[in-house]
């Protein structure tokens, strides 16, 4: 038994399998085969070539540069600052015009701070004390403003007080204003200039209209009718994200401005146009959640007539803008075209394979088709009851 199986395995090594074509007169299977062919051809032409443009060589290594400028002035009159005119040098951080910049819309000002000793803010839990031993000297106040001196400052007839600290005094005590100080900043304008280059194709472009009219940038505003005007109204940018300007100006937020370049370089360069998308990037919490908004602190330093340093501390609320650029370029190339055409031809074979499975396994006369599909051929002569290779080469037609 073992020798026979080994002998059969040995002989099968020298077998040769050749394809046999059988025409099956079965309308259902034939219709299914044509539907599969049409579907594969439609996928290849519509999706692969027209939609995905897989006949092109692509470049996604976009090189980009961003220049930003903000313009606008506001006049305010407050008890801390008095009458003051705010221009771009006051409310834009940083001033260099980068792809990430911050526009101040609200602030808390603590003027004339000097380094000395004073009481820590009562709202800080780590600063609460009952006696001097609760304020070990030299220890910083966690989330506080300075270093403990060892004294517990209590008002008369009060059992609890706050630790004395060495810090910039007086410490910040005011809360956020209920209305944004620079609430009219929605009329400010943002100038966003974007240079892009696709190195593989040595193709460069900018989002600014190529014109010699110097007054163009002073009068245009971005919109559907003028997509190559890089001047955006700040209030419009906020509204395009679905947010209310006064709400975001009060507590701050983060807005993303995405510029997308999708360039078909088989067409004219004028057909490569930027598309803009505006979105709110920070998470908005309901109500007056402490997690809402965006703010940070900075200070401006001065010296008095005696040479002693003092400063004005500013807690700034506002809108941070992140300008994001991405894109791709495509151009016809024979290599991806051949690869995708070859893939489509291979998919045609999948249709034949699927129909063969149905024909020889799943229909009522599957055994009949299976016997016609697979046939063992041995070398011999005509008339001896065996099929010759020459006879096998004849195309057979099988009636259903």
TrEMBL record:
GO cellular component: plasma membrane; postsynapse
Subcellular location per the Swiss-Prot or TrEMBL entry: Cell membrane; Membrane
GO annotation, biological process: calcium ion transmembrane transport; response to ATP
Pfam families attached to this UniProt entry: P2X_receptor
Cysteine disulfide partners in this protein: 118-169, 129-152, 135-163, 220-229, 263-272
Catalytically driven reaction(s): Na(+)(in) = Na(+)(out); Ca(2+)(in) = Ca(2+)(out)
Alphabetically ordered keywords of this record: ATP-binding, Cell membrane, Disulfide bond, Glycoprotein, Ion channel, Ion transport, Ligand-gated ion channel, Membrane, Nucleotide-binding, Receptor, Transmembrane, Transmembrane helix, Transport
Subunit relationships: Functional P2XRs are organized as homomeric and heteromeric trimers. Homotrimer. Forms heterotrimer with P2RX1.
Protein name: P2X purinoceptor
